[in-house]
Design a protein that fits this description.
By secondary structure, this protein is an all-alpha fold. The protein has 26 helices and no strands. Helix content is 77%, strand content 0%.
């Protein structure tokens, strides 16, 4: 790191902390490689994860460096209403997922959400849904690398963007390749502790600089930004977060779909050592998530007072770090931001690899040859894809990163398929009459409907109507799936046996089979 100390004013202790952290993460991650003997160990940690590790990993998998940038940037631009994405959009949905979907998924013995949809409906649904998620997760992987390199490390530390991208790719790629989900989760535990220490430090320094929450409210009101303090915005607002969209689009659709149907989140619970640990991990993660808005949104509001007039809200937190943190804390905050990045990158990389290996390439081979990959081949492919995707993500990161608002971009992308996904997932679990053609029509027509809603001007008052798009696409896909299912022959009992929630929970024969599958 030539010239780092002089250019950035970092003390020797700061540089020592950074080096020790990087080496420690690398060693800890690669240590778990010796426990990976088969595909189950690599993709779902051999079903050995405790609840506390699952909960902590879920939080840092969902909340990374992009949230420090994106949520704070949206709070700077639009106000505290963005905090609803954690308070309304996470905690209730995580409780719902813990008691409905998580026990079902864990007992069913699947590796991925697309795998369940393929078994419940047909191979077309599995491949289409898996491809959608795989492309989205790969895009997110590239975006994470670029946002951290461009809006955090370059602004705060002055690091060369390409150097940062490839350093991240090297560290996360090596230990994800070596240890799979076990390495990812156990590194995430350390990352969460570091991230919380850094995030809470920035929160306290921000409020201390302004004079507390009361002073922040007064100064925002005096500056003409009183609307930034409204947790719920009017329905007819032209901002992205109207209360109707928050309640219906976010609370009912996007949140539940994200926490129950997102491979990055669900994969941790699939690796739980028992059903109790799977549910407990999701609930513990929901408790920890309640602190996130305080760490990311309030510093964004504070920046509106301390650094008014920023052209790009996503630079609010990097500027706050640069201006507020004394030299003695810069190393710690760097490590916290680095931890936030790595926790999101390693989780996304592992889930992307899982979907591509099992739901796309593996399913395609089975359809063409009639023979599935063996355990050894799946493990080899998983590691090959890990290397391939982290290299490709680093290469395309500068292109993918050219978007004005990171957080709105992510939510808009999710709204294009989360509504249809939740519809067919919910009906597949709860309604035995749902058929393969109903699920396929609900997914394909639903995704097509989201594009019509999202790109037809004048349908909604908001300039970024992703919340409304999510709600109405969910309703549309529900109707399509039900109508088509009723118009097509019902699925035979032997096909859906063990795939409908009531059967999985109460059917003794199914439970015995699944117990043998898990313990084998």
């Amino acid at each position: 790191m030539p010239g780092l100390e002089g250019a950035l004013g970092l003390a020797g202790i700061d540089i020592a902390i950074i080096i020790i952290y990087m080496v420690g993460v690398f060693v800890l991650g690669t240590f778990f490689g010796k426990y990976v003997r088969n595909a189950g160990d690599f993709f779902i940690a051999g079903k050995a994860l405790p609840f506390w590790a699952i909960g902590m990993s879920i939080v840092v998998s969902d909340i990374g460096a992009m949230d420090f940038v994106g949520v704070a940037g949206s709070a700077y631009t639009h106000g505290i209403a963005v905090a609803n994405f954690d308070w309304i959009g996470s905690m209730p949905a995580m409780v719902f997922a813990a008691f409905v979907f998580v026990p079902y998924f864990w007992r069913s013995g699947v590796f991925t959400i697309p795998e369940f949809l393929g078994r419940r409906y047909n191979a077309a649904v599995q491949v289409i849904h898996g491809t959608i998620w795989a492309v989205f997760l790969f895009t997110m992987l590239s975006l994470m690398l670029w946002v951290t390199a461009d809006k955090l490390m370059y602004v705060v530390l002055g690091w060369n963007r390409q150097f940062t991208i490839w350093l991240m790719a090297l560290i996360t790629g090596v230990y994800t390749f070596s240890g799979g989900l076990s390495a990812v989760v156990m590194v995430d535990v350390v990352q969460m502790i570091i991230m919380f220490v850094g995030g809470l430090s920035l929160l306290m320094l921000s409020l201390w600089q302004i004079g507390g929450w009361g002073a922040l409210r007064e100064q925002l009101t005096a500056a003409g930004h009183a609307d930034h303090l409204n947790i719920l915005l009017p329905h007819n607002t032209d901002l992205p977060y109207p209360w109707t969209g928050i309640v219906f689009g976010l609370g009912i659709v996007l949140a539940i779909a994200y926490m129950s149907g997102n491979q990055v989140i669900v994969q941790r619970t699939l690796g739980a050592r028992s059903e109790w640990h799977a549910k407990g991990g999701m609930l513990f993660g929901g408790f920890l998530k309640s602190f996130i808005p305080l760490m990311v949104a309030i510093p964004g509001l504070s920046a509106l007072v301390l650094i008014p007039g920023l052209k790009d809200g996503d630079t609010a937190v990097p500027e706050m770090i640069r201006l507020l943190l004394p030299p003695g804390l810069r190393g710690l905050m760097f490590v916290a931001l680095f931890a936030a990045l790595i926790s999101s990158v390693d989780s996304t990389l592992n889930s992307t690899t899982t979907i591509w290996t099992t739901d796309i390439l593996g399913r395609f081979k089975q359809l063409v040859t009639g023979v599935a990959f063996g355990e050894r081949h799946v493990l080899i492919l998983g590691r090959v894809f890990t290397v391939l995707f982290i290299i490709l993500a680093a290469l395309v990161a500068p292109v993918v990163g050219q978007t004005e608002s990171v957080y709105v971009f992510i939510q808009t992308a999710l709204s294009l398929f989360q509504g249809p996904t939740l519809a067919i997932l919910l009906l597949g679990v709860c309604w035995r009459r749902a058929t393969r053609w109903g699920g396929l029509a609900g997914l394909v027509l639903g995704v097509g409907f989201t594009f019509i809603l999202n790109f037809t001007e004048g349908l909604f008052p908001s300039e970024d109507p992703f919340l409304f798009v999510a709600w109405w696409s969910f309703v549309f896909s529900l109707i399509v799936t039900v109508v088509v299912s009723l118009c097509t022959p019902p699925e035979p009992d032997e096909k859906i046996r063990g795939l409908v929630w009531g059967q999985v929970v109460s059917d003794g024969v199914v439970q015995r089979i699944l117990t043998e599958r898990v313990s084998s």
